[in-house]
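Worked Example 4.2. Consider the chain below.
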Amino acid sequence: MNFERRDIILIVGIFLVILGITQYIPLYFSALIGILLYFGIKVYVGRKRRMIENDVGEGLCMECGFKIIDDKCPNCDSN
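Applying the procedure from the previous section yields the following structure tokens:
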């Protein structure tokens, strides 16, 4: 879980959510919800990114869009 530039936008958004729910529940509960939201979103995005990287592998063929295996496209290079 690396800190990236777009995490600043995530932190600001969660801070605004914390401010919004503070009027209904105490501050320490809303802060706990904000922390859980941040780490939950980070874990979800990390798993999704890893899944996409595993699906893509070495890359995609520019002609047909298939996954490249051993530097060859199984669809285009089969001839």
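The chain is about 60% helix and 0% strand. The CA atoms of residues 1 and 45 lie 10 Å apart. Compare this with Example 4.1 before moving on.
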